[in-house]
Amino acid sequence: MQLIVSELVTNSVTALEETARHMAPQVPAVRFRLSADPGPDGAMVTVEVWDQLPSPPRPRSPVATEEGGRGLLLVGAVAKEWGWYWPDHRVGPGVEWRPAEPKLITESTALFGKVTWATVTNGHGRGGPLPTPG
């Protein structure tokens, strides 16, 4: 789970750093939340990371000598599933994030940023059980 949180937050921060100079006087922001949901297959933990950039995350295929570009590949390898959506309304303090119906996604909605998410079920992703801390 730590890897997923780290990679999704890092992707948002890195992307915002590249565009922050064009956002003045607005201060760039990244928010994340963790939620657990008991289900028939065990508890599912979802990580959601919101940032102000409307563009979808794009997995890359970096060459061996590149330092970055593997975050979403790592997330895809250890998460049960991952994806992204545009919030259906502005995200702010006390505002619930909800996935938008495709028909409700408009250009103005996309201006409110995006949420990238990943899930792990019962401590397991595609890579098997997560190691026990300690």
UniProtKB/TrEMBL annotation:
- Matching CDD domains: HATPase_RsbW-like
| InterPro entries associated with the record | Anti-sigma-factor_SerPK, HATPase_C_sf
Regions that span the bilayer: none
Report what the protein is called: ATP-binding protein
Question: Which source organism?
Answer: Actinomadura craniellae
Give the lineage: Bacteria, Bacillati, Actinomycetota, Actinomycetes, Streptosporangiales
